[in-house]
Amino acid sequence: MHHTRCSSWPPKAALLSSWSQLSRIVKSPIIMIWEEYKNEFEPDGRLRGIYIKDIDLYGWQSFIDFLRSTDAVLDYYIEGVAADLPASIDKVVLDQDHPHLLLIYLDGVTVNCHFFLPEEIQMDLDPREIDNEAKAKVVFRFMSTVGRTLNKQVILTPENSEGRPIFKYEPGSGIKHLVLNKGI
After folding, report:
1. Which pTM does this prediction carry?
2. Would you list the domain boundaries of the chain?
3. Which of 2, 49, 91, 171 is the most exposed place for a label (fewest CB within 10 A)?
């Protein structure tokens, strides 16, 4: 069962006490050492972007349906005003005349989903929220599970730097820290 919470703009930080449904989906452990990658989340004034490319309306709908099936708290806004997230997401994705924002609250990490392009899911997060290994693993589980659900590559980059991924989920391969893997 999903939870939708609406509040005034700007939304207040929310912590999800249980993200068990999403966490259970990921069966394999994420094997990376916090000390080797924690600097990727050092605050530098930039957000971190999460991108999923080559998406169509069916992919967008699958993404939203997946989020609704988890324990994630979802807040949806049109032009900064809280609204109910529509059951069918196609009109939201195709509406380029109004800003739409979906906030996804996951165990102390807020992921902001933007509806900028119909062919790409673009999200971002504030690296200041990723202050320990457990929160980093929340992000990695999110990337992995969404990537597996959509059968798509998911990358995490510095803000506005899609061509410089830091972490990459590849279907069948899991999450990789590309700095450690020399861009592989």
Report:
1. 0.83
2. 3-9+17-22+46-177
3. 91
